Fold this sequence. Notes:
Blueprint (H helix, E strand, L loop, with lengths): L5 E5 L4 H12 L3 E6 L9 E5 L5 H15 L4 E4 L14 H29 L2 E6 L3 H4 L5 H21 L4 E8 L5 H4 L3 H8 L10 H11 L11 E4 L8
The structure holds NADP nicotinamide-adenine-dinucleotide phosphate (NAP).
Amino acid sequence: xxxxxxxxxxxxxxxxxxxxxxxxxxxxxxxxxxxxxxxxxxxxxxxxxxxxxxxxxxxxxxxxxxxxxxxxxxxxxxxxxxxxxxxxxxxxxxxxxxxxxxxxxxxxxxxxxxxxxxxxxxxxxxxxxxxxxxxxxxxxxxxxxxxxxxxxxxxxxxxxxxxxxxxxxxxxxxxxxxxxxxxxxxxxxxxxxxxxxxxxxxxxxxxxxxxxxxxxxxxxxxxxxxxxxxxxxxxxx
Length: 237
Ligand code: NAP
């Protein structure tokens, strides 16, 4: 029997994060989901109520998880938000909030995890970016900046810790069936969906399968990679 790992998934209350958390539970890991609400998290996921825009709450939750389990083995920095608006009309607040939740809090999650993983000399970090970081969809200057930001951050960190048995990788989902895509509105979604070579939206479970692989012991020689799960939408970028 393989050892039970401590897995932390941010934004596990629905969508992609919920699917990731469930996939880790199914393979026997101990899984903690960090989000503001428990939402639809699968049974077996241990919810910790955290608003990622509060650095204190985040640190307290991660400290408590480390104390309780004695390890932090896998971290999936998945939580994210959108505040879409054409750039000329985008407020400073909407720009800053998206950067804060998607980029700054992701860095805080990664930094806190590393403290434990460096001592363990092992760890798997998977950061959820977006194909939008590379494509730059209209109305998403804030979101694209945050998602491009996590790619640069992940790669810098990957280089810092590669010799310690820690890998840091990025997944870049395309159009996935979640509340976030529903919020795009039918017309915009149909226009985007038309451009997907696979001819359909992806499922949260299809993203989770890639995340579970990158977090597995078998992915030990993959670090600093960006894995697109997008039905070919961003091919060539
Ligand atoms: P979603 O269904 O809207 O879920 C977002 C998750 O983030 C929820 O669990 C939410 O939990 C959590 N969250 C948001 N703000 C938070 C905060 N301040 N503190 C704590 N948790 C917070 O989104 P999704 O589609 O699953 O997206 C998950 C990730 O994939 C995001 O980073 C997104 O940018 C990325 N992505 C999605 C797509 C797509 O097509 N869906 C494509 C590319 C990338 P609470 O509301 O309970 O706090």
